[in-house]
């Protein structure tokens, strides 16, 4: 029997989702680390696995999937995991799908755009982003974090009900990403903060282990892009 292969980089939010899920559910898999910072996703070898040059990707005995939401739905159907992750009952499943569809233009887009502006682009340009642009992207991100606080978590312990689902993993990974820029989504949002702690506790110790790298980088560079930190030190 071929072991499941996971191609990933823990700096990728969806990659962390899949890895946490596999570890929390004791699904054995082969680690295939693709270092995005070294552009390993653009190598000819990886292009054979994913011509789209993105992670995560799974190879389940020759069956390859290249999109994280599709991957998670597939794993919930095909592997022996508790039903609460992706309920089979139509209405309960629809509530999970509701968040998964919303997130693309919600948490994923706005947290991701702010991270790109504050971290990825300066990494390439070695230049700090314009203040007006920072304000615009930050405001959009904060509005979406507030939606998680005031709408998605208004009357329930998890995004889609009383139990954790794959929607919670997707949201948590996206909301942890701004930590690299020095922004903590927990500040001033008690419901969101308590929910993140519930997700962390339920998936312990894997949640912390998988987020260890971004926590280490955030701590080392004090929430700034490494390229800008190095530039500031050189100018002193």
UniProtKB/TrEMBL annotation:
One of its GO terms (cellular component) is cytoplasm. Homodimer. Its EC number is 2.5.1.18. It is found in: Cytoplasm. InterPro entries: Glutathione-S-Trfase_C-like, Glutathione-S-Trfase_C_sf, Glutathione_S-Trfase, Glutathione_S-Trfase_N, GST_C, GST_C_Theta, GST_N_Theta, GST_Theta. It comes from the Eukaryota. Residues 2-83 form the GST N-terminal domain. Belongs to the GST superfamily. Theta family. This is glutathione transferase. The keyword Cytoplasm applies. Keywords: Cytoplasm, Transferase. PROSITE patterns: GST_CTER (PS50405), GST_NTER (PS50404). It catalyses: RX + glutathione = an S-substituted glutathione + a halide anion + H(+). GO terms for molecular function: glutathione transferase activity. The keyword Cytoplasm applies. Residues 89-221 form the GST C-terminal domain. PANTHER family: GH16740P-RELATED, PTHR43917. It holds the Pfam family GST_N.
């Amino acid at each position: 029997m071929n072991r499941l292969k996971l191609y990933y980089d823990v700096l990728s939010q969806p990659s962390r989702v899949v890895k946490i899920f596999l570890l929390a559910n004791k699904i054995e898999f082969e680690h295939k680390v693709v270092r995005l910072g070294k552009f390993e996703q653009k190598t000819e070898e990886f292009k054979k696995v994913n011509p789209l040059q993105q992670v995560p990707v799974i190879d389940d005995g020759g069956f390859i999937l290249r999109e994280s939401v599709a991957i998670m739905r597939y794993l919930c159907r095909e592997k022996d995991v508790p039903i609460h992750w992706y309920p089979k009952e139509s209405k309960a499943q629809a509530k999970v799908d509701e968040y998964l569809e919303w997130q693309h233009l919600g948490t994923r887009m706005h947290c991701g755009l702010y991270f790109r502006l504050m971290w990825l682009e300066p990494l390439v340009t070695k230049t700090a982003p314009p203040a007006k642009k920072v304000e615009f992207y930050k405001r959009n991100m904060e509005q979406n974090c507030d939606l998680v606080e005031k709408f998605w978590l208004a009357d329930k312990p998890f995004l889609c009900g009383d139990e954790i689902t794959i929607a919670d993993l997707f949201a948590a990974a996206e909301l942890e990403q701004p930590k690299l820029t020095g922004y903590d989504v927990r500040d001033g949002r008690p419901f969101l903060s308590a929910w993140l702690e519930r997700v962390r506790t339920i998936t312990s110790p894997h949640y912390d282990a998988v987020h260890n790298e971004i926590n280490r980088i955030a701590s080392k560079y004090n929430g700034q892009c490494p390229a800008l930190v190095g530039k500031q030190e050189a100018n002193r």
